[in-house]
Automatic annotation (TrEMBL):
Gene giving rise to this polypeptide: dnaB
GO MF terms, alphabetically ordered: 5'-3' DNA helicase activity; ATP binding; DNA binding; hydrolase activity
Lineage: Bacteria, Bacteria division WOR-3
Transmembrane found in the keyword field: no
SF4 helicase domain boundaries: 181-445
Catalytic function, reaction form: ATP + H2O = ADP + phosphate + H(+)
Pfam family name, one: DnaB_C
Record key words, sorted: ATP-binding, DNA replication, DNA-binding, Helicase, Hydrolase, Isomerase, Nucleotide-binding, Primosome
Family indicated by similarity: Belongs to the helicase family. DnaB subfamily.
Protein's recorded name: Replicative DNA helicase
Gene3D superfamilies per UniProt: DNAb Helicase, Chain A, P-loop containing nucleotide triphosphate hydrolases
Length: 452
């Protein structure tokens, strides 16, 4: 295919850059908003970058004395640095004051400058990727990983929220409080009463980690919560199963919903009555808004893209990932750096989409070396960044995993080891291993038929 080249000018808005710089030299309101939102590199013209640097340095005292950066002080500082001509000269500085805008509009103008900058950076990245693709010196997957890392990097320039008046925050708070007081519960409950009392459920924008040693039941616990959210509360949820195929996910969901043993289901050794129970469970699950992706070795780039698309198509309330350490990340010097990158990306994704992102994680073998094998935050495998980025860390511990004849058989401790917005503590749940099912312990002890 013949390549068609067209000379095109990169996106820019010189007149708006001039207006912003002029306003920053004539209004303190415009000055502080401009310094809050902009950096030198977002400007298209090199001389505008120089002028902005000087305005910033004068305002912050980096030029030797903290002053208001008006036309005269900016001109003097440019002369002192020997950059007045490079910045366009004294006459050009004076023309900037002719473009002054109302300080109330400075934020919108700054947004346009940043938008044009993001267009240019994206074009730069795309051109670099195109060149590497034509060169064919790297594997395609490596090029994609590098592109993903570069694109993620420019998200740092994505517009951030500024100050919001307290009155605008009070209304949603009281709406949520009224919601709870009226008995409708938290917005995104786990379905386990005591856990929800401790955590007040899952919250929008939170990055939540569910961690344990292998075979402790963290996948089953996540599936129980997912099923509760979707089937009992009608909340659409997504589930990334990176190591377990979707047919096994379906088996587990059917077992916990029908109370039929997993082994019997796998062997096909079920009675007509049990088959009827399975059919009834399937009917209930059919209407549950559950969406499953079992792409093996999924890259972080693909996971983020699929989550964004699913949120748009299905209006997801939460996303589960099983599990964090098997997500493919761009190549870095150490595994710890990769895990830190994944962790930060998932937290960023939760905030961007305003949904809880719930990721499962493996714990290190250090747990097994202690007499008390209850997990601790230090046990999070390969990176302390997970602990830092997570808003909530939930550990699973079952004493009967280590002591088969314990009096605590069938009991799971759900340990909230970190809760950025609330208390930590431990909740005890029943775990019916044959059904891969967690239940409220009080209900199990009462012998309710729902759980038998």
């Amino acid at each position: 295919m013949k390549e068609i080249k067209e000379a095109r000018t990169e996106p820019h808005a010189i007149d708006i850059e001039m207006a912003v710089l002029g306003s920053m030299m004539s209004s303190q309101q415009a000055l502080y908003k401009g310094l809050e939102m902009l950096t030198p590199e977002v400007f298209y013209q090199p001389n505008h970058r120089i002028i902005f640097e000087v305005i910033r340095d004068i305002a912050e005292g980096a030029a030797g004395i903290k002053r208001i950066p008006d036309l005269l002080t900016v001109k003097d500082e440019l002369e002192r640095r020997g950059k007045l001509e490079e910045a366009g000269g004294a006459a050009y500085l004076a023309t900037l004051l002719e473009e002054v805008i109302n300080p109330e509009y400075i934020e919108e103008h700054a947004k346009i400058i940043i938008e044009k900058f993001l267009y240019r950076k994206t074009i730069e990245i795309c051109n670099k990727v195109m060149k590497e693709c034509y060169d064919e010196k790297k594997e395609a997957e490596e090029i994609l990983d590098e592109a993903d890392a570069m694109l993620f990097g420019i998200r740092a320039y994505k517009l951030k929220g500024g100050f919001i008046h307290l009155k605008d925050l009070l209304r949603p708070f009281f709406e949520e409080l009224t919601h709870i007081m009226e008995g409708r519960g938290v917005e995104l409950p786990s379905g386990f009463h005591e856990l929800d009392l401790l955590t007040t459920g899952f919250h929008k924008g939170d990055f939540i980690v569910i961690a344990s040693r292998p075979a402790m039941g963290k996948t089953s616990f996540a599936l129980n919560i997912m099923k509760n959210l979707a089937a009992d509360f009608g909340k659409p949820v997504g589930f990334f199963s990176i190591e377990m195929p979707k047919d096994q996910i379906v088996q587990r969901l059917l077992c916990m919903e029908s109370n039929i043993e997993m082994q019997k289901l796998r062997k096909g050794e079920i009675t007509p009555q049990e088959f009827l129970k399975l059919s009834e469970a399937a009917e209930r699950l059919k209407s549950a808004p559950i969406y499953i992706d079992d792409t093996p070795k999924i890259s972080l780039q693909e996971l983020r893209a699929k989550t964004r698309r699913a949120c748009k198509e299905y209006n997801l309330s939460a996303v589960f990932i099983d599990f964090l350490q098997v997500i493919e990340a761009p190549k870095m010097e150490t595994r710890q750096q990769q895990i830190a990158y994944i962790s930060a990306s998932l937290k960023s994704l939760a905030m961007e989409l305003n949904i809880p992102v719930i990721a499962l994680a493996q714990l290190s073998r250090e747990v097994e070396k202690r007499a008390d094998k209850r997990p601790q935050l230090a046990d999070l495998r390969e990176s302390g960044a997970i602990e830092q980025d997570a808003d909530m860390v939930i550990f699973l511990f079952r004493e009967d995993f280590y002591e088969p004849y314990t009096s605590e058989e069938g009991v799971a401790e759900i340990i909230v080891g970190k809760n950025r917005n609330g208390p930590v503590g431990t909740v005890r749940l029943g775990f019916i291993k044959e059904y891969m099912k967690f239940v409220n312990l009080s209900s199990l002890e009462r012998g309710e038929t729902e759980f038998l």
